[in-house]
Design goal:
By secondary structure, the chain is of the alpha+beta class. The protein has 2 helices and 4 strands. Helices cover 21% and strands 48% of the residues.
């Protein structure tokens, strides 16, 4: 993520987007459900692939992939708003 000026902090911020669009993606080889979230931070739309894990007693996202959204993903995001 650092190669593209994308940070884990920025990914965490994206999860706070009230317009974020999250969909189930697939079960991985361990039977864990993966998700894809399209969200924006400061007007820039991102795609985040993640799973949910328990940290202490709280379920939190664990980022697998974080990148700027493709054009078709941006359209999905803005269609929802």
């Amino acid at each position: 993520m650092q190669d593209h000026d994308l940070t884990f902090e920025l990914a965490e911020e994206a999860f706070d987007d009230p317009y974020a669009l999250t969909n189930e993606d697939y079960l991985d080889e361990n039977g864990e459900m993966r998700y894809q979230t399209i969200a924006a931070v400061d007007g820039v739309v991102f795609m985040i692939a993640h799973v949910y894990r328990f940290v202490d007693v709280e379920e939190r996202p664990r980022v697998i992939s974080f990148r700027k959204a493709a054009n078709y993903e941006k359209k999905q995001y803005f269609r929802r708003r």
